[in-house]
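Consider this one:
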Amino acid sequence: MDRVLILHYHEIWLKGKNKRYFLSRLTGAVKRVLADLPAAPPRFVSERLVIEPQEESALPAILERLSRVFGIAYVAVARRTANQLDAMGAAACEVMAAKNPRDFAVRVKIADQDFPMNSMELERALGRMVLDHLRERRSEVRVNLSAPEATCSVEVVPGEAFIYAERRQGPGGLPAATGGRLVALVSGGFDSSVAAYKLMRRGAHLSFAHFYSGPSADGRASSRHVAEELVKALTAYQFTSRLYALAFEPVQRRVVAAAPESLRVLLYRRLMARTAREIARAERALGLVTGDSVSQVASQTLHNLAAMDHGLDFPIYRPLAGDDKEEILAWARRIGTYAISCQPFEDCCPRFMPRAPAIFSSAEELDRAEALLDPEALVTLALESAAVEDFVFESGRVDTSAALPPRFQKLVAWRKTPERPAPPSAPVPARP
């Protein structure tokens, strides 16, 4: 077949001497997502990746897989021809006849130093051929260079040319797993999965920590199954993931028994962050990711976020800090997590919700309340409850397996030794 897919990237252009590394990771990702589909391995042609589908019927599946490959700006479904004027003109006429526009433009990129025409000359020549061809059907067709209904794109490379009028947007960003490890705190809601996606799109490879309570009194199930579905959906973008599911209700009950009511949710969240920090150490991660959006709820005011972060001594990334709910929901629909988060479930943070939650807490106030709880013991209690699931994307599906990683087992065993870990404000010792 003469149809090919042209994969364009943007940000990788800026990587200078590191560009080869990012391109190799992008090529590896493309090969991996298409391994079980009938397509030739991608090849580089003048700073673009070209894929040749071997069966027309496989095109929709190929395009769907490529839509989740970080680093791809867009994918064009193109006709391949010889880079001669007559051949390019015939292909351009056929492509634009299928679009049947009222007005159009021809845009040319030339990456062949030996081609005898410049881009403007070729645009004029092909534009005239296409205009004559279309006017045989509709006499009112015209050229519109400012806001055309359809654009015929022509890319001339050594020995061949690619002509197309359709392109599909890719996710952009940087190739998966090129920027270090992070641990994302994922709930069952919309925000945390979108925050995780945004950091994955920047090249971070994420593991996930989910804190759940038991079923609610009105019959709603625990959030754990929703978190598992969210991680499964996100794994299709980064190929492998690990989810730590931790029972948090025993910790919450101790907070309710000993701490001021107005600070409950803030204490829950600080203890979650402390626990996730330990998981990050076992995963050799460089920070945490949360779905906080400034002032969206009481616990996410600037005062409360600063108070919760105090004493953690670990980076926390909040990619949704300036986003509103509508923007977050739009992202959730785009990346495929919206329907999952719409399922009914019992979230753990609203459990034992205070009647009047604090909105202007201070670090000192929260420190005093936390000191009543023995936070290190509560972190260990949460870690002991962990169930760990690994997710792997292969051949268009995500497979799972369950096992406690050895480094995590050693961490929990170390925390349970009679010698207490250092308090959070002291220098953190090396972990086993």
Summary: The CA atoms of residues 84 and 160 lie 8 Å apart. Confidence is low (pLDDT under 50) at residues 423-432.
